[in-house]
Amino acid sequence: MNKEKSYSSSGLKIFLWVALVLLVNGSALAKSSLNMTQGVTEFSKIAYDLHMIVLWVCVVIGVLVFGAMIYSMFAHRKSKGVTAAQFSHSTTAEIIWTVIPIVILIIIAFPATKALIKMEAPTDAEGKNIVMDMTIKVTGFQWKWKYDYLDEGISFLSTLKSDSNTARQIGSGINPATVENYLLDVDHPLVIPVDTNIRILLTANDVIHSWWVPEFGWKRDAVPGFVNEAWTNVKTIGTYRGQCAELCGKDHGFMPVVVNVVSKEDYANWVESQKGEQKVAAVKNNAQWSKADLISKGKEVFNSQCATCHQATGKGMPPTFPALDGSAVVNGPIDEQIKTVVFGRKGTSMAAFGGILSESDIAAAITYTRNAWGNTAKDAAQPKDVKKIKNS
Amino acid sequence: MSHAETHSHDHDHDHKPKGFVKRWLMTTNHKDIGTLYLIFSLIMFIFGGALAMIIRLELFQPGLQFVQPDFFNQLTTMHALIMVFGAVMPAFVGFANWMIPIMIGAPDMALPRMNNWSFWILPFAFTMLASTFFMDGGAPAAGWTLYPPLVLQGGHNLAFAVFAIHMLGISSIMGAINVIATIMNMRAPNMGYLKMPLFVWTWLITAFLLIAVMPVFAGAVTMLLTDHYFGTSFFNAAGGGDPVLFQHIFWFFGHPEVYIMILPSFGIISEIIPTFARKPLFGYVSMVYATAGIAFLSFIVWAHHMFSVGMPLGGELFFMYATFLISIPTGVKVFNWVSTMWKGSMTFETPMLFAVAFIILFTIGGFSGLMLAIAPADFQYHDTYFVVAHFHYVLVTGAVFAIIGGVYYWIPKWTGNMYSERLGKIHFWWSVISVNVLFFPQHFLGLAGMPRRIPDYSVQFANWNMWSSIGGFAFGLAQIFFCIIVWRTIKGKGTSKATDRVWEGAKGLEWFIPSPAPHHTFQDGAPVNDEHLAHVSSH
Questions:
Q1: Last residue of a domain, one of A250, A282, A314
Q2: Whether residue B2 has pLDDT greater than 60
Q3: pLDDT tens digit string along B336-361?
Q4: Chain A contact present for B15, CB below 8 A
């Protein structure tokens, strides 16, 4: 009997010790980056403040309730010779512990309601609707983001940077710690100006994604066939990193969001340079390419856009992602393959790349696949062939 | 009323059918079916736990070491489906089968043949579901929430998953009908509704939740099936449908579903705490009302799982406020348990230890639930490891701890053998420490920005993931140890014979029959008077 007692009381001591360590640890971490970020927008600050308020409310309630309980566990033990009281209800107590939580909840509801209204129906201090300075459309793809600057006509894809992508493969032999911003870096980050009201429209091409930059204070789903709206105004220049937050298939963990927030001047310069690049791309789309150029460009496009599913070896991951090496489509009439790439395959993961990649990139990638591995077609597609099918 | 009179008729009727097929396959006995449910649940718990071990192994350090991302998604999906539908729910049905007829003085469940069927569907359903691992394209990989359009990309595993869910739904609905019919029709004379043990009350309410929401879930997955195979467009925007519609239907089922997994836990805890405090349950009537209140609220809070999906402001406000309300009846329950302990005369045998840990750790899960209810903050928390930490606190240290506590509490009655208190206490401390090492750091990971359902992560998350994995392996091993304890108890190894009463402070009809409980009890009805009643407050 004594033995039993010693087990439970030494066990209790261990438990309390662990709880204390966790508590001390927890409050130390609250100051480090392991707490929610305060971020760089009004909303991220609001979210942080609400988070901290409710956290402390919970801590206080927890200390009171668990404190009473732990006191009781020590004071009201049979081993101390206590005889059990036999009370079984107290209307007063029950009213008190129903009313107090209601009051606390009402108090929390006020700032939470204010914050939600601010986010969903943006108004300034005088209650006037906030005017948006620019609009960016974000489209989720498996597994990359596309950004369209609707006012500037700029548009590009943003995919996981190749050094991360190489390091993440099983058996790559690369230590992730040696890769800068492992899994949180992209080839083309979104660039936005500081101190600007930016409307962000979200949609998706295939499955539901969710666009999230913790420093901006929110995530919002990108739903295929629907357009969601959110907005932001970033106060601090810098680079901010986030990830897709809604499970979207095998590479869900590998489609980061990177946003460069730059000064308004730098942004204007960036826009000019992008427009220059778009002109170059237009020239490329109208040019006649040599087969060698198509193949070398095509390999680059294939490895960045197609290889996540069809694999760099062309072997694919059947049955979901078919092999291109030896495929009937890739070795058949070239127009059929162009149609497949431009319009996608309904009911499968094969996206319609006609609206994603440039005509020259599509022509190059197709030419590459028809000449790579054991494929025997060995012919070439020109950007104008792709254009013809796109417009058919 | 003496103890002998209550079961004087039982001894002569203890004819167990001979042979495995007759005894177990064709059984209509509520105790045997309860045993089958509990054993099935334990097997599924180990299976689902093994999947979780692979998940934690892959997440032990950054980089991909063991599994491909696609298989990782299959693991998370199947881990959840198996734990929810294979481990937790059948465990509670097992408790219901064993204890409800005894607790209300009934000879068996009201519909014994249907009872047999509702159990024997389960092994077939789960064989079908698990067989998808061996198919082309593998098991479902879109998460247990099965969101379209992603789930529709998965190939033919969808059909298997959908039909398995249909079978589970049929099993659950039949089980629920049986519970309701038994409680409403077969209570012993003098066993009024407000004299029933709280475990019976929580199951009665849970059964209504099951009947209300399982058909909704069946409907949702059937729409997935027709979208995939028959060209409908319920969830396809290109055909005039809406992928978000599925989320609304799913969570209209899904939120009551999480209460289906927690209300019977409340019932078990409400039996254990008064027994070891040697004091009546505080606020019995308010416990009943709080349970009913939680059940009602569970139907009007579903979209708090969808704050980031792009809802109108009015919708977000409504679901935020409604979710707040849940903390009130839940708080009442916690306060009542603490008041039951207050000024009691407590001892801390293994069931009590698990019950006390349940109260503290479930409440921590409740706190993070309140935080998640704050919509503007949820825009940050949503779909991160903070959510993973939250629902594992309420489901593992909540529901699973209640189940384990309940097993220790009633296993002497089921087997006639006392489990080894020493091993039970080792199991408890081993579990309670490792489970916190496993799940507490996940709060930090989520707040620091780690999304859920990812097979690999940025190096900034490495430390806490390693801690979480270490805790996970330790917790997994502890449950193997639990299986050994259960096995030894059944076999009577290193144990003593249990008395009829088992626990000094135990109250309720189950403690007036012999240990082990005879094959048939209360065949000629149970004359019940107040001394037999459970922890009901005397008004």
A1: A282
A2: no
A3: 999 999 999 999 999 999 999 999 99
A4: no
Q: Is residue B287 within 8 Å of B252, Cβ to Cβ?
A: no
**A33 in contact with B at a CB cutoff of 8 Å?**
yes
Contacts of A89 in chain B (CB under 8 A): 282-286, 537, 539
Chain A residue whose CA is closest to B152: A347
Residues A266 and A162 in one domain: yes
> Which chain B residues in 75-104 lie under 8 Å from chain A, judged by CB atoms?
none
The predicted pLDDT at position A124 comes to 72
Whether residue A257 is found in the same domain as residue A234 = yes
Bridge partners of A239? A260
Specify if A1 maps to a domain: no
CB contact at 8 A, B424 and B412: no
**pLDDT above 50: residue B481:** yes
Mean pLDDT of B162-177: 96
- pLDDT band at B1; cut points 50, 70, 90: very low
Summarised one tens digit per residue, pLDDT across range B269-282 is: 999 999 999 999 99
The answer as to whether A277 is a domain residue is yes
Q: What structural domains does chain B harbor?
A: 3-532 (1.20.210.10)
Separation CA A233–CA A212 (nearest Å): 15
Look at B338 and A65 and tell me if their CB atoms are within 8 Å: yes
Give the Cα-Cα-Cα angle B164, B392, B423 (nearest 5 degrees).
100
More confident residue, B405 or A350: B405
Whether residues A22 and B285 touch (CB distance < 8 A) is answered with no
Chain B segment 141-180 residues within 8 A of A by beta carbon are: 141-143, 147, 149-150, 152-155
Q: Is the pLDDT of residue A154 over 60?
A: yes
Among B280, B376, B462, select the one facing A119 at the smallest CB separation: B376
Q: What is the pLDDT of residue B15?
A: 73
Query: Which tokens in the block code for residue A113?
Result: 């309601």
Q: Are residues A268 and A319 both part of a single domain?
A: no
- Chain A nearest-CA residue for B324: A105
**Distance of residue A144 Cα from the nearest chain B Cα, in angstroms:** 15
Contact flag A176-B70 (C-beta cutoff 8 Å): no
Contacts of B142 in chain A (CB under 8 A): 247
**Average pLDDT in the B317-329 region?**
95
Q: Tell me the C-alpha distance between B269 and B278, whole Å.
A: 14
Distance of alpha carbon B244 from alpha carbon B234, whole angstroms: 10
Same domain flag for A269 and A210: yes
Residue A141 within a domain: yes
Instruction: Enter the pTM of the model.
Output: 0.90
Q: Which of A4, A46, A167 sits opposite B376 (nearest CB)?
A: A46
Q: Which pLDDT tens digit goes with each residue over A7-46?
A: 455 555 665 665 655 555 554 444 446 799 999 999 999 9
Same domain? A112 vs A138: no
Same-domain check for residues A165 and A260: yes
pLDDT tens profile A66-99? 999 999 999 999 998 888 888 888 889 989 999 9
Supply A182's token pair. 């492992």
Q: Where are the alpha helices (DSSP H) in A32-175?
A: 42-75, 91-120, 162-167
Closest CA to B389 of B472, B344, B446: B446
pLDDT at A1: 38
Choose from B224, B308, B496 for mutation: most chain A CBs within 10 A: B308
Supply the range of the domain harboring residue A106. Answer: 36-79+89-120
Where in the sequence numbering do the catalytic residues of B fall? 79, 108, 144, 171-172, 255, 257, 259, 270, 304-305, 330, 333, 452
What one-letter code names the amino acid at A216? F
How many domains does one find in chain A? 3
Q: Does B358 touch chain A (CB under 8 A)?
A: no
Interface of B with A in 246-275 (CB under 8 A): none
Q: Which residues of B touch A94 (CB under 8 A)?
A: 283, 286, 332, 335
- Residues A273, A157, single domain; the answer is yes
Q: Are B164 and B129 in contact (CB under 8 A)?
A: yes
Question: CA-CA distance, A128 to B265, in Å (whole number)?
Answer: 51
* Prediction ipTM score: 0.90
Closest to B65 measured CA to CA, from A168, A161, A165: A168
Amino acid A22: pLDDT: 56
Domain stops at, among A248, A282, A316? A282
